[in-house]
């Protein structure tokens, strides 16, 4: 094989390599953009989950820490206990502020 043929083969290989590199670089840019979009989506989902979790903890019974709080004390207004725990209270005293309550209201939370 003469040197001209070798140079042509090398030039052809170089052209193929450059085309492969351009294709790979284009795919890498596409994947980076997709990763950025998904990262933003993940951050938004995490924030939404954190807000949901805080609402769940805020509406949790302060006595059993299991059931959602759906009973409010009058007159202080603390929505603090579930129906089961409210039924077990000996005296109507709010577990949050310790104020004697006149009554306990069942609150229907959506």
TrEMBL record:
GO terms for molecular function: zinc ion binding. Keywords: Metal-binding, Zinc, Zinc-finger. Residues 61-98 form the RING-type domain. The keyword Metal-binding applies. Gene3D superfamilies: Zinc/RING finger domain, C3HC4 (zinc finger). It comes from the Eukaryota. It holds the Pfam family zf-C3HC4_3. The keyword Ubl conjugation does not apply. This is Baculoviral IAP repeat-containing protein 2.
